[in-house]
Amino acid sequence: MGATSGNRSMFRRLLRRLLFANHGRLFVILLALSAGAAVSAALLNLQVDAKRRINSEFRAFGPNVLILPKSSLASFDATFSESTAKEIPESYPGGRVTVSSALYIAGRISISQTGKSISGIVAGIRPLMFLRIAVAPSGTDPGKPPLPNMPQGPVCISGQRIAARLGVEQNASLVITDGDHSESCTVFSLIHTGGAEDDRVEVELHQAQRLAGLPGRISAISLYVPGTSQQKADYVASLQKQFPDIEVRPLRQFSEAQAKIYSRISGLLTAATAIILILTALCVMAAMTNIAAERRNDVGMMKAIGGSARRVLHLFVTEAVVLGLAGGLIGAAAGIALSVVLGKAVFGVAAAPRLIVYPICVALTVIVAILGAYPLRRLVNVRPATIFRGEA
């Protein structure tokens, strides 16, 4: 009984020595794991946030799917029912779809103050300022408040090229005429996109419908569909089945460019994360190799007093898990904070912290710690007799 108690006491002393005698090396391992976790978390958080950033940036370029009447190629005046826009599903697995209706007409645009006028394209848009500002103009959507300093009455947006031809500036009053109908509006802003928007004046959809004498009719529906290329293709296919009498036209170059940019950024960040984790594992493995050499005598003594090889191996795995967990928790928190700074430098806007990154990074760090502890496995094969004879 006394011998058994003495063996247990010796076993506990050896265990404490085995796990806590190498403070310096364990600190180096913890530091390596924390640093690896920090960089990995920063890169993963940027990768997750990059998709939202790219979607946000591409939204500014306009829609990636158009819905048009089948006769639109043959006639500028081709229209279809405005109610079609209300039947379009705005939610699908890839995200929330943004829908905008438009009616295009050719009209006479003049400045109220000077009377100068030119012929130009007028686009009736709902919601007005689609993909430019997130608030509807005063009076067009009672559910959204007007912007500060919003002009009283109807507002419009003028493209820079047509504004230069007309000599119009912001806050100027315009009168738009089409046949016997006329509408007035105040220029809320001038826009420059490098596209067709620069050559037209945008007004609220109902104004364009009154000008053209086409109540309830539109020329096109513009959609911004988020998600992967396959999700977009499936969504477009479902729209084509839902609306067989109109044309659903995806802007493939636009969608493919968005997918290609995200794929490249995601691939680069994934590769960088993998390299960081591999380097971290190699650093841990090098430190563990030195620790393994220092622990041979203690492991031999533990096995001599009854410690099984499986129990010794479990001790090392537990030690690696604890180190990985501690390094992951510390490093992941620091890495997510670091990604906010990197996002500001890369995208010009701070990256939003993504909570999903935290447990993923901690789990990866634990796995790296376990893999890095592989050299300690050699200690399981240590023979007590060899240690007692003083053999290497």
What does the model show?
The structure is a single chain. By secondary structure, the chain is α+β, with helices and mostly antiparallel strands. It is about 50% helix and about 20% strand. The protein has helices spanning about 1-20, 25-60, 160-165, 205-210, 230-240, 250-305, 310-345, 355-370, 385-390; strands spanning about 65-70, 80, 90, 95, 100-110, 115-125, 155-160, 175-180, 180-190, 200-205, 215-220, 220-225, 245-250. The chain is elongated, with a radius of gyration of 34 Å.
Looking at this protein, list some descriptive labels.
2 domains; 6-stranded mixed beta barrel; 9 helices; 392 residues; single chain; 51% helix; alpha+beta; two-stranded antiparallel ribbon
Q: Over the alpha carbons, how many angstroms does the gyration radius reach?
A: 34 Å
What is the number of helices? 9
Instruction: Determine the N-to-C terminus distance.
Output: 34 Å
Structural class comes to alpha+beta
| Overall strand count | 13
Task: List the strand order in the largest sheet.
Answer: 5-6-10-7-9-8
| Secondary structure: helix percent | 40-55%
Q: Mean pLDDT, rounded to whole units?
A: 77
Strand content: 15-25%
Biggest sheet descriptor: 6 strands, mixed, barrel
Task: Characterize the overall form.
Answer: elongated
Give the low-confidence spans: 130-148
How many domains, as an integer?
2
Q: What order do the SSEs take from the amino end to the carboxyl end, as H and E?
A: HHEEEEEEEHEEEHEEHEHHHH
